[in-house]
Design brief:
By secondary structure, the protein is mostly helical. About 70% of the residues lie in helices and about 0% in strands. It has nine helices and no strands. The longest helix is centred in the C-terminal third of the chain and has 29 residues, at about 160-185.
Length: about 190
């Protein structure tokens, strides 16, 4: 099943987790630390309001920093993901945000990938399943997004599914942090 189809079928909790995971993986380009979004993950698991932790995360990244090695465009995309987080974890705004985060996260990975982009297919075509010629970093991000939605769609996973989704996201964040770090070293 394509990423677009998985997003279309996801429930509100899955959408909120998917969007949060995309944002979480892109935190390195904002210069944020690995625990920046942990309170949002906790609120998602508990089902509580995430307004307070969201305000704290936004405040921690204002003015918008840029990690050495991250492009201005990648940083702007990640910042827009953070700025667009809906106040609540339900409703149509969550679906729109999760879908936008999916596209933005793939674009961030494309911008930071040292490998050639491959064919001229846009990110939207990749999300629909046309993956031939994709660069390794973008392909890995696409697989992570699909895996997270699959984990959260499973009927019997509950909190365990959210924990597994967070683990997948952490792995992706480590990868992107390493990419940003390598790019920063290459500029010196």
């Amino acid at each position: 099943m394509s990423l677009v189809e998985l997003i279309a079928q996801a429930d509100e909790r899955g959408l909120a987790a998917s969007g949060l995971a995309c944002l979480d993986r892109c935190v390195p380009v904002l210069g944020g630390d690995d625990d920046l979004l942990r309170p949002l993950w906790a609120r998602l698991a508990e089902g509580g309001d995430w307004g307070g932790p969201l305000a704290e995360a936004r405040s921690a990244l204002t003015p918008a920093p840029r990690a050495p090695g991250a492009s201005g465009e990648a940083t702007a995309l990640a910042r827009r993901m953070l700025d667009a987080v809906p106040a609540g974890q339900s409703g149509p705004a969550v679906r729109e945000w999760a879908d936008g985060c999916s596209v933005a996260a793939l674009q961030v990975h494309r911008l930071l990938d040292a490998a050639p982009w491959g064919s001229a297919r846009p990110v939207t075509a990749r999300r629909e399943g046309r993956t031939d010629g994709m660069s390794p970093l973008v392909a890995a991000e696409l697989r992570r997004q699909i895996r997270i939605l699959e984990l959260l769609a499973a009927k019997d996973t509950g909190a365990d599914g959210l924990r597994q989704a967070l683990d997948v996201s952490r792995e992706g964040r480590r990868v992107l942090r390493a990419v940003v770090s390598r790019r920063a070293r290459g500029r010196h």
